[in-house]
Write a structure and sequence with these properties.
mainly beta; Elongation Factor Tu (Ef-tu), domain 3; Rossmann fold; 2 domains; 7-stranded antiparallel beta sheet; 7-stranded mixed beta sheet; 12% helix; 34% strand; globular; binds flavin-adenine dinucleotide; binds FE2/S2 (inorganic) cluster
C-alpha cells in the first residue's frame, strides 16, 4: 500500500482527561484507504528532543469527510506537545503504515484493548460489524480514568469493562473477566492491543482455549518504514520488522510468546 505524507489540519482536540486526548484531523487531499490496525508516524515540531516521529494507531477514519482521528495518551515529551495542539494547527503525518488485522473465519470476535490500546479497535469493530460478524469488546484499565470512550463501541456489540481497582466494571485484569469463566468460549478469534504483559496473558488464554489470536505490538520505533531495523520481532519465519510486517502479528507466529 502506498505511503503518503500530508499536513493535516487539526479541527478539534478533545481533552478527555489530564492524560488522554483525541485529535480530529482534516486532510487537505483525498486520503488513501486506511485499514484497521494501520498507524501513522506523526512529526512533533519545534523540539530537537522529538526529532524522531511518534507512531500512533489510526483511531477513526471518515472517508466521506476526508478526516481521521488519533487517540493519544501522554507518555512523554512528544505526546505532551501534541496535547497542546488546537484547532487550526498543522500535524504532519506519514501514513498508512504497517499491516492490518486479518478478518476472522468464524463469525464471533472478541476485541480487547488495554488503556490506550483500545485505539485501533474502533476501526476493527466497525469493519467486523459491517461484515456481519458478532462483536464483543473488552476494555481494561488501571482505574475508571483509563477506560476511554467505551460507549462508542456499543454501536458494534457488547462492551465489557475491567479495572484493576474495581472503580468501573469487574475488578481485576482483562483475562480475569467473567467472559472467560466457561469451558467453551463462543469466540472464533481474539484481537488484543495494550501493554505487553496484558497481550501475553491474552495470548496464553486464547491458546489454552484453542482460539486464534492476533495482537498489535507497540514496539519502540524510529523510522517506521523498515529502514533502521530497531523494531525487529522474532517470528517462526525469522526476524520481521514491526513497522512494515507488523504491528499486527498472529501470536502463534511470535517465537518468544510460545
Ligand atoms: C504501532 C504503534 C501504535 C501506537 N499507537 C498509539 C496510540 O494509538 N495512542 C497512543 O497514545 N500511543 C500509541 N503508541 C505509543 C506511542 O507511540 C508512544 O507513547 C509515543 O511515541 C511516546 O512519545 P513521547 O515523546 O511522548 O514519549 P518519550 O518521552 O519519547 O518516551 C516516553 C515513553 O514512551 C514510549 N515510547 C517512546 N517513543 C516510542 C516509540 N517511538 N514507539 C513506542 N513507544 C515509544 C517509551 O516506553 C518511553 O519510555 C503506539 C506505538 C506503536 C509502536
Ligand atoms: S522502525 Fe525502523 S525498521 Fe521499524
Amino acid at each position: 500500500m502506498k505511503r503518503t505524507i500530508h499536513d493535516f489540519r487539526v479541527y478539534q482536540n478533545d481533552h478527555l482527561s489530564n492524560d488522554y486526548f483525541v485529535l480530529y484531523l482534516d486532510c487537505p487531499e483525498k486520503m488513501p484507504e486506511i485499514l484497521p490496525g494501520q498507524f501513522v508516524q506523526a512529526l512533533v515540531e519545534h523540539s530537537p528532543a522529538t526529532y524522531l516521529r511518534r507512531p500512533f494507531s489510526v483511531y477513526h477514519v471518515d472517508e466521506q469527510l476526508n478526516r481521521m482521528a488519533l487517540m493519544i495518551k501522554v507518555a512523554g515529551i512528544g505526546t505532551a506537545a501534541l496535547m497542546k495542539l488546537s484547532a487550526g494547527d498543522t500535524l504532519n503525518l506519514i501514513y498508512p503504515l504497517g499491516n492490518s488485522f486479518e478478518m476472522p473465519e468464524g463469525d464471533h470476535a472478541l476485541l480487547i484493548g488495554g488503556g490506550v490500546g483500545i485505539a485501533p479497535m474502533y476501526m476493527l469493530a466497525k469493519r467486523l460489524h459491517d461484515l456481519g460478524k458478532k462483536v464483543d469488546v473488552l476494555i481494561g484499565g488501571r482505574t475508571s480514568k483509563d477506560i476511554i470512550e467505551p460507549n462508542l463501541y456499543r454501536e458494534f456489540g457488547n462492551v465489557h469493562i475491567t479495572t484493576d481497582d474495581g472503580s468501573l466494571g469487574e475488578k481485576g485484569m482483562v483475562t480475569q473477566h467473567s467472559l472467560f469463566s466457561g469451558e467453551n468460549l463462543p469466540f472464533s478469534k481474539i484481537y488484543a492491543c495494550g501493554p505487553d504483559p496484558m497481550m501475553r496473558a491474552v495470548s496464553n488464554l486464547a491458546k489454552s482455549k484453542g482460539i486464534d489470536c492476533e495482537v498489535s505490538l507497540e514496539n519502540l520505533m524510529a523510522c517506521g518504514i523498515g529502514a533502521c531495523l530497531c523494531c525487529i520481532v522474532e517470528t517462526n519465519e525469522g526476524n520481521k520488522t514491526s513497522c512494515v510486517e507488523g504491528p499486527v502479528f498472529n501470536t502463534r507466529d511470535l517465537k518468544a510468546w510460545q
